[in-house]
Amino acid sequence: MKMAKQIRKQAMAAERAATQAADSIVAEQMKNLALAFRAQADVLKRKKKKKK
Questions:
Q1: Cβ–Cβ under 8 Å, residues 37 and 11
Q2: pLDDT band, very low/low/confident/very high, at 52 (cuts 50, 70, 90)
Q3: 2 DSSP 8-state letter
């Protein structure tokens, strides 16, 4: 599996954890983590496109 796809899966898992978190602080941190994962996946995808 490609790295960007794995990172996007991690983002989805973090979002699911955010919706299930009882603590609002933890939920917000998980949402931020999901955003960071998506940003990282986007960077990897752009780098791969540049190499071609």
A1: yes
A2: low
A3: -
